[in-house]
Model the fold of this input.
Amino acid sequence: MRGTKVPGTWDIFCRVVDNFGDIGVCWRLARQLAGEQRGTVRLWVDDLAPLHALWREADPGRARQLVAGVEVHRWSAGFPAVQPAEVVIEAFGCGLPEDYVLAMVGCGRHPLWVVLEYLSAERWVPEHHGLPSPHPRWPIPRYFFFPGFVAGTGGVLCEADLAARRAAFGADERRRAWASLGFEPPVAGSTVVSMFAYDHAPLAGLLAAWEQGDEPVVVAVPQGKIVGSFFDYFDVGGVEPGHGFRRGSIEVRILPFVEQPRYDELLWSCDCNFVRGEDSFVRAQWAALPLVWHIYPQAERAHWHKLEAFLDLYCAGLPQPAAAAVRAMWRSWNSSDDPAVSIGAAWRGFQAHRATLAGHAQAWAARLAELGDMAGRLAQFCAERVKY
Ligand code: TRH
Done:
């Protein structure tokens, strides 16, 4: 139907502010638009090293390459003269190159400019999602697109084959996944957790609780800065990925930083996942298992509103004691200054509800799936606004 055809060409602009989240989301989106929406997608990113960590085939030394059906370009100063795409995505306030904007202005039919925002569960998000954002100088159609967890937002990214991949991941696949990381599967009866968190997490308190607890805990830690905090706590030297160490009730497994699809498999192989930022947080929700979120810290504790807003949504429908345990655990994990509940006590409270939380995680993932995937919603959003 005229006016609702999914746009054919896309330019996604991404600046790596820090860590992996910005490129993690943009790369997932780019792959989906190319693979599932059959778009011709160019991804412009200013730093290819984090992309290489998420997807080894992406060569950080090449300024232009085709990877997983996406044309990946290093975004550097002196932007080349290119024909703008039908839809231009400015991710997370990264801005667009001035020359590129002028090329957009010069197009007979102006491209659609989409300002992709960060994910938030705050109440104002549905009211702002999809609003026009008129450019101060140029008559280019520009709109806000807000991902989110409720109807009226853009949803969250979810590949079309994710549920099938998850369902097909059984005991054999789990064994293979552990073997590929250099380990035997953890023995039955242990609580297996993955750990991806920022440096300021109250890790030592949690490790002490695990070490001194009655139950065996296996902690899988992908390579990253936080590994150093494990070495400090256990007073061990640099342990290489594929190796681990034990003390008391805890076994620590140091893993490589794996590619995005393998990270999903790690999440599926655990009983509880500690995740952070934006994209791993969403993947842990799709894993349909209990999770603990370390939110990206912002100035003036702005992140705290986001944390509470998500807790309000996530805990709705949970029996009160289990909801209180989730709140206590997440608040304690995110409080760098003197949390009201010690992290050890918070963990014990959280674990006491593990069966309820496991069931709830499945219900939450099913509810999220009903919203529809963000890439598809974005394609539809643009189809309704692009002028052909
Ligand atoms: O890395 P993050 O902390 O990213 C961000 C950025 O800090 C960003 O600036 C900030 O605004 C945002 O958080 C909120 O966390 P995130 O979003 O979870 O991204 C991590 C990515 O790394 C995600 O795509 C999952 C992936 N990953 C792997 O592919 N393999 C791994 O082994 C691990 C640990 C993660």
User: Anything to note?
Assistant: The first strand starts at residue 9 and ends at 14.
